[in-house]
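Work Package 4 report. The design task specified in the project plan requires that, given a folded chain encoded as structure tokens, an amino acid be chosen for each position. We show below one input record used in the internal validation round.
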């Protein structure tokens, strides 16, 4: 079967990510683990640049937001109060014919009958709730410590004995054996970063002395036992979130929802995602969490379809109220002007780091035609990253590697630029090929040290270099003393 152009594009992107060291499958040499990914040398830079820019605009450039970094292992009481233990689940079904396991909403409908998307069978099990939280255990617990949790039962699906014990889609289960009678405490790997912000609300309010409206921001790992991790890093079992909980008075909630939706759209544009590939979905009443008064999904046109990048939700006072109830600790805000105490409302922009990284790579991937060394046109693969997020900002090349003076000057330039940006030195191969290697990983600028730099051809050009821009391939002559300013003004 012929693959669609979008499917082919996605395949090229996944293959480039592996070939050039952006993203690898986790535990690959042992056969890999489904839904888990490792970021390589370039992927980690790209991801870090996304997180740093988010932190810059959401925390550092504002007076009304402070940051925190909470623990991943979470007390079960937190996630009971938040509603996750009871209700953070997807409906799961199995196909009895091909043994595929999937989310119930992934079944396809043909002539009004639900069918397996893989084999077309309509012999499907009844849907059952599958809690998406990942558990782990701390301990062995000292019996005198007062912690009394024992190993929990293994069956994670609510109220049913699984009809099908092994499936083709995910057969990597191992039994965890604990010595009989060992006391362990059940804890969860957090399914979102948000809950530690709510739980620390009072402490942070006290130490930061902020007045409403104000926000608490966090970037960190979250874990979900997704039934069908898919679409590369789009839906995985371990991922990172960038979340802001922006606390406010009830009457400000709807206005701030609009404000944050606009701010977040600006963020994506500012990292190089074209506005016409971004879409705002107003989540309809029946699909919104019952406590939310308004939710937008910011979506992006991925090659595999239009999908959510970020949710912006007005969550009312639900979370703080739940934790006040659950902990019996007051989580109110005291308004010094009105002398009133109340539980603040919250607006939450919640973005996925990995989905943003994937959107950036999809947006940046392009192929054009460019002449090779012999002047023959060939296909050039370019990642057109915004310089702000590009993993490497500038590559520095001596024209020839066997000319000591060229190499020494290029090394000097590397040392000059390094304190300001991530630079890469490359002396191997023809200069055209070196440019192409950088184009393919999205390096926006290339600096070449040539004989003019040494003043050998024209004294007026001494201590100038060729600065090449990735997308236009245009070259300009820049004085070395102006290089730091020229580049920093373009990458910030
Ligand atoms: N605190 C609200 C919250 O967690 P969510 O819509 O479940 O809301 C927010 O998640 C964002 O986290 C999503 O828009 C997405 O970018 C990212 N995300 C959620 N599940 C993910 C997964 N399995 N893999 C990668 N990213 C995920």
């Amino acid at each position: 079967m012929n693959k669609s152009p979008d499917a082919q594009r996605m395949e090229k992107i996944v293959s480039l990510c592996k070939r050039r060291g952006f993203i690898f499958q986790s535990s690959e040499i042992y056969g890999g683990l489904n839904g888990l990914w490792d970021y390589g040398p370039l992927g980690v830079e790209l991801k870090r640049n996304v997180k740093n820019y988010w932190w810059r605009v959401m925390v550092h450039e504002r007076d009304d937001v402070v940051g925190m970094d909470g623990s991943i292992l979470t007390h079960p009481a937190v996630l009971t109060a938040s509603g996750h233990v009871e209700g953070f689940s997807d409906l799961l079904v199995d196909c009895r014919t091909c043994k595929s396991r999937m989310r119930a909403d992934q079944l396809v409908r043909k002539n009004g009958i639900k069918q397996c998307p893989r084999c077309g069978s309509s012999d499907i099990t009844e849907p059952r709730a599958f809690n998406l939280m990942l558990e782990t255990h701390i301990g062995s617990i000292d019996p005198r410590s007062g912690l009394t949790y024992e190993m929990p039962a293994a069956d994670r699906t609510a109220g049913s004995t699984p009809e099908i014990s092994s499936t083709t889609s995910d057969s990597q289960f191992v039994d965890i054996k604990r010595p009989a009678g060992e006391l362990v405490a059940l804890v969860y790997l957090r399914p979102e970063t948000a809950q530690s912000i709510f739980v620390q609300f009072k402490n942070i309010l006290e130490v930061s002395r902020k007045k409403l409206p104000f926000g608490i921001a966090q970037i960190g790992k979250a874990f979900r036992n997704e039934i069908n991790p898919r679409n590369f890093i789009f839906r995985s079992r371990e991922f990172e979130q960038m979340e802001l909980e922006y606390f406010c008075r009830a009457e400000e909630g709807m206005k701030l929802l609009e404000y944050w939706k606009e701010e977040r759209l600006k963020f994506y544009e500012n990292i190089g995602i074209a506005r016409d590939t971004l879409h705002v979905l107003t989540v309809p009443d029946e699909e919104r969490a019952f406590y939310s008064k308004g939710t937008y999904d910011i979506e992006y046109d991925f090659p595999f379809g239009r999908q959510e990048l970020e949710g912006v939700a007005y969550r009312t006072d639900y979370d703080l109220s739940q934790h006040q109830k659950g902990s019996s600790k007051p989580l109110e805000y005291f308004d010094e002007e009105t002398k009133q105490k109340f539980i603040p409302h919250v607006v939450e922009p919640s973005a996925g780091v990995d989905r943003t990284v994937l959107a950036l790579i999809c947006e940046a991937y392009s192929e054009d035609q460019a002449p090779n060394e012999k002047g023959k046109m060939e296909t050039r693969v370019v990642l057109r990253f915004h310089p702000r997020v590009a993993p490497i900002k500038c590559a520095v090349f001596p024209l020839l590697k066997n000319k000591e003076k060229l190499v020494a000057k290029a090394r000097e330039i590397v040392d000059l630029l390094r304190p300001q940006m991530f630079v890469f030195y490359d002396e191997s191969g023809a200069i055209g090929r070196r440019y192409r290697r950088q184009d393919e990983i999205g390096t926006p600028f290339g600096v070449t040290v040539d004989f003019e730099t040494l003043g050998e051809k024209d004294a007026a050009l001494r201590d100038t270099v060729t600065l090449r821009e990735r997308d236009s391939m245009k070259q300009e002559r820049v004085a070395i003393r102006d290089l730091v300013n020229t580049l920093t003004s373009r990458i910030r």
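The longest strand covers residues 305-316. Validation will be extended to a larger panel in the next phase.
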